[in-house]
């Protein structure tokens, strides 16, 4: 349950493949493009099974650019396995109609810092592109580190190279190249800002290195796309004693969706494991919990007493959960 979104009709004006697994879409909203800032995301309504669900995609580039005057640009990675969102988006052809919300920003770029380090992993590049372009245009001291599984998955590398030149360094997993985030942080100005977006393992490494450096927590800004964890998705079960039911959570669905579909109303907002609104109490774990949120601390995750239903999962078994339901 969440506050209703104001939806606007829109049309796919064009699309193109940036990599074998990343497709960029130009989406023309009815009326006009609403004002937005770098780091913003766009909510898109997607039909999955018998219901409509919401997916959030970062807006690419800078608002003032000519190619963003009439359209929103987003890039969608084809996920395997997919919960349905990327599969639907990749099925859209030019002229297809869809519903979009208004741009919203939970990943603001503060201006005026003495130095910036931008870090991106995989599809986490999408909100970082505009940041790099804007900081370059303003003459800021900025460098960027960009990691991908293979060279063919470096979406926007040419655009970023044109803006940053040698200030951009790329790291290819399959080539054994590893980002030394500790060394990168140690080389920063004491008041520098680090902004990153990428998969959870990379984010965890950046957060740990930043904390170990003793730098101000507020100078690390991040966003996660909330669909990656320590292990691949697998099906698991959840039992809710207060309701007297056991539910199966398929590999391609979230615990949050399964709970709400079963009539167990669970609050939520971000669907990215950031706000903590969907947290549920854990009574028992059979197997292990793959905590994929950035809301709980490492200590809280180790305790396994709560989890974020929108992104976290179980592996090798299932969970006994305590809901807020109380019989009259």
Name some characteristics of this structure.
single chain; 328 residues; alpha/beta; Elongation Factor Tu (Ef-tu), domain 3; Rossmann fold; Ubiquitin-like (UB roll); 3 domains; five-stranded parallel beta sheet; five-stranded mixed beta sheet; 7 helices; 16 strands; 19% helix; globular
List the helices and strands and how they pair.
Blueprint (H helix, E strand, L loop, with lengths): L7 E10 L4 E8 L11 E8 L2 E8 L13 E6 L7 H7 L5 E4 L15 E6 L3 H13 L4 E7 L8 H8 L3 E5 L8 H6 L6 E5 L2 H14 L6 E4 L12 E5 L4 E5 L5 H7 L17 E12 L7 H6 L2 E3 L4 E10 L6
Parallel strand pairs: 7-8, 7-10, 8-9, 10-11, 12-16
Antiparallel strand pairs: 1-2, 1-6, 2-5, 3-4, 12-13, 14-15, 14-16
Give an account of the 3D structure.
This protein has 328 residues and is α/β, with parallel strands linked by helices. The chain has three domains: 8-100, Beta Barrel (Elongation Factor Tu (Ef-tu), domain 3); 116-223, Nucleotide-binding domain of ferredoxin-NADP reductase (FNR) module (Rossmann fold), CATH 3.40.50; 236-322, Beta-grasp domain (Ubiquitin-like (UB roll)), CATH 3.10.20.30. It has seven helices and 16 strands. The strands form four sheets. A five-stranded parallel beta sheet has the order 9-8-7-10-11, with helices on both faces. It has a five-stranded mixed beta sheet with strand order 13-12-16-14-15. It is globular and about 60 Å long. The two termini are 22 Å apart.
């Amino acid at each position: 349950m969440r506050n209703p979104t104001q939806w606007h009709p829109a049309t796919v004006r064009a699309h193109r493949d940036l990599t074998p697994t990343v497709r960029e879409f130009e989406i023309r909203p009815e009326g006009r493009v609403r004002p937005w800032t770098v780091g913003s995301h766009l909510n898109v309504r997607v039909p999955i099974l018998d219901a409509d669900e919401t997916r959030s995609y970062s807006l690419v580039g800078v608002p003032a650019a000519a190619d963003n005057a009439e359209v929103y640009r987003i890039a969608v990675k084809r996920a395997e396995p997919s919960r349905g969102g990327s599969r639907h988006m990749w099925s859209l052809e030019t002229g297809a109609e869809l519903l979009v919300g208004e741009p919203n920003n939970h990943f603001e770029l503060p201006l005026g810092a003495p130095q910036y380090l931008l870090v991106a992993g995989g599809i986490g590049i999408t909100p970082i592109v505009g940041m790099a372009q804007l900081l370059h245009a303003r003459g800021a001291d900025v460098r960027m580190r960009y990691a991908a599984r293979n060279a063919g998955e470096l979406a926007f590398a040419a655009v970023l190279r044109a803006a940053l030149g040698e200030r951009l360094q790329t790291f290819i997993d399959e080539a054994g190249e590893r980002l030394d985030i500790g060394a990168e942080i140690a080389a920063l100005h004491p008041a520098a800002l680090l902004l990153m977006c990428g998969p959870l393992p990379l984010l965890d490494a950046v957060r740990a290195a930043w904390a170990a450096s003793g730098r101000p927590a507020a100078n690390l800004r991040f966003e996660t796309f909330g669909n990656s964890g320590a292990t691949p998705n697998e099906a698991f079960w959840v039992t809710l004693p207060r309701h007297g039911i056991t539910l199966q959570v398929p590999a391609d669905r979230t615990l949050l969706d399964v709970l709400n579909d079963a009539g167990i109303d669970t609050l939520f907002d971000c669907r990215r494991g950031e706000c903590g609104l969907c947290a549920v109490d854990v009574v028992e774990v059979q197997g292990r919990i793959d905590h994929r949120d950035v809301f709980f601390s490492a200590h809280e995750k180790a305790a396994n007493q709560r989890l974020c239903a929108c992104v976290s999962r179980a592996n090798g078994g299932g969970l006994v959960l305590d809901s807020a339901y109380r019989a009259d």
